[in-house]
Amino acid sequence: MKNAFPSAHPLPGAIFFKTIELSRVDLTDTTYQISTPTPAEGLMTSIREVGLLSPPLLRASSPDRFIIISGFKRISACRELGLDPVDARIVGEGLSDLDCCRMAIADNTSNRALNAVEQSAAVLKLSAFFDDDRTLSLEARKAGLDVNPELVKKLKKLTMLHAEMMAPIASGALPLTIALELGRLDRDAALAFLNLFEILKPTLNHQKEMLTLSREISAAGRIPILQVIRDVTADMMMYESLDRPQKIQKIRNNLQRLRYPEMMRFEKQFQKRLLRLNLPECIRLVPPAHFEGTQFTLSLTFEDISQFKACTDILNPLVHHPDFKKILDKDVEDNPPIR
Question: What is the pTM assigned to this prediction?
Answer without folding.
Answer: 0.71
